[in-house]
Specification:
The chain is mainly α. The protein has one domain (2-91). Helices cover 75% and strands 0% of the residues. The protein has four helices and no strands. The chain has helices at residues 2-26, 30-55, 60-87, 100-105. Helix 2 (30-55) packs antiparallel against helix 3. The radius of gyration is 19 Å and the shape is elongated.
Length: 113
């Protein structure tokens, strides 16, 4: 029974990893690609690790450490990538409504005249 539950959880995690890859292909600009890839891949990785933990309980501590590493590094790396992309003025999609960092970085440049 544990093998079946573990396999189902791994399959659900694989679906989220697939959706992360699909999001990278479908999103219009760098910033939305970073968000789509990070959120879905973090959840997918955690589910795959949880499924492996159910399937192989003796690996639980190692998988928990890996899951902690994924939860700490994925959001940090995506934040760093998006800040650098904004700093080098990577263009946003035309459908983007607001740029909160623009006003935060240099408020003098964007004051109404």
């Amino acid at each position: 029974m544990a093998e079946l539950i573990g396999s189902i959880v791994v399959l659900v995690g694989a679906f989220f990893l697939f959706s992360a890859g699909l999001g990278l292909l479908r999103m219009p600009d760098t910033f939305t690609r970073i968000q789509a890839g990070t959120k879905a891949s973090t959840l997918g990785n955690i589910l795959v690790l949880a499924g492996l933990g159910i399937y192989h309980p003796e690996w639980a501590l190692k998988l928990l450490i890996i899951a902690y590493f994924v939860l700490m590094t994925n959001p940090l790396s995506s934040h760093a990538l998006s800040r650098v992309a904004h700093a080098i003025r990577t263009p946003m999609a035309p459908s983007t409504m607001a740029d909160a960092l623009r006003d935060q970085d240099d408020p003098k440049e964007n004051k109404p005249r």
